[in-house]
Amino acid sequence: xxxxxxxxxxxxxxxxxxxxxxxxxxxxxxxxxxxxxxxxxxxxxxxxxxxxxxxxxxxxxxxxxxxxxxxxxxxxxxxxxxxxxxxxxxxxxxxxxxxxxxxxxxxxxxxxxxxxxxxxxxxxxxxxxxxxxxxxxxxxxxxxxxxxxxxxxxxxxxx
Length: 159
Known about the structure:
Structural class: mainly alpha
Distance between the termini: 72 Å
Keywords: Membrane, Transmembrane, Transmembrane helix
Largest sheet: none
Organism: Virgibacillus indicus
Helix content: over 70%
Low-confidence stretches: none
Shape: elongated
Mean pLDDT: 84
Number of strands: 0
Order of helices and strands: HHHHHHHH
Strand content: under 5%
InterPro entries: YneK
Protein name: DUF2621 domain-containing protein
């Protein structure tokens, strides 16, 4: 009986260490997003800036489409994903001097904000909504595993 209790205590210890490690990993990632870059603002500062600048530009149809696109993200992470993607869409809209968030800008921003593995779902959703994906092929083709690195340079080349 004593040996079983010993094993349970050891197993419990490994479980706690594992869970604390996972939590620490996510906390560290959040910490890195808060670190200022060369321009003095962090990634989170820029995300909040673009959200505040473009919050009035969203129509109900685009909000609904964004909700559909982030629906496969687990609910625990959905708010974070929605915020990141919406801020990138807002950034694209501001760079294009748009007055509203259009479907075109939304799709471009979604492609830029998400890794390549998520694009299969986007293509499927575009097909369901009878939206031609051909105008966005240049964005799909330029996508890397992590599109966020140097996305602005690649975006400028497509103009």
